[in-house]
Amino acid sequence: MLNAIIVDDEEFARSSLYFLLQENCENINISGIAKSVSEARTLLQQHSVDLIFLDIAMPGENGFELIPQAAQSKSHVIFTTAYDQYALKAIKANALDYLLKPIDIDELKEAVTKASKYIERSKNEFSRVESLHNLAANLSERNEIRKISLPNGQGYSLINIDDIIHIEADSNYSIFYLANNEKITVSKVLKEYEEILPDHQFVRIHKSSIVNLNYLREYNSKNGLEVILKNGDKIAVSRRRASDFAERIKLYTSFDSDK
What we know:
Elements: E1 2-7, H1 11-24, E2 28-34, H2 37-46, E3 51-54, H3 67-72, E4 76-81, H4 87-92, E5 97-100, H5 105-122, H6 128-142, E6 147-151, E7 156-160, E8 164-170, E9 173-178, E10 183-186, H7 190-196, E11 202-206, E12 209-212, E13 216-220, E14 226-229, E15 234-236, H8 239-257
């Protein structure tokens, strides 16, 4: 039996993972559930934890900031996140595995089985190299595509990032405008998506706007600095971001021609 904790800032994600583990992984005992890295540190002090199911993008401290305490307590990590752009960093953080939300039951069971075997072996000898190869192999086998999961209240909407035209901030919410004319509102700030989405493709042109350069049709100063997207939307470019935006367009053109 492995003692595990779940760390995720989203209530639905915490409860759904708890249910999946209870129903499908009999060898996992949930010792605690945390909604922040700070709460997770407290759980690590209070319990002997073998395995941490750890979200990455959370308000305040992100999941990677728990790694030093996890290592100190000899706890192993399976990352659970909506963003596959974190895969390489997860490998560097020595995670046992990496699950993309919404979590697939078979992938969860496979990850837990591999983690159980590895943890049993690691009680005798810790092999960091084996851990890295294990995660790298898992990622390769899955052939993951570039998608993100957007919480929608009832679960998640799985979105290909190439279908995102632009994202607009509305206070502490982010509104995604998609190629199929759908709009999805998410209760996360724009900065989180600025940090996650590939910067050769997505550019923040205003404190309230991120655009996908794949949908850029025109950039002009006729009515002030603005971009016109392929769907006809016009979005202002702030003056302090104009110079950087111009450079990013040059880099994007260069990147696109190298494909």
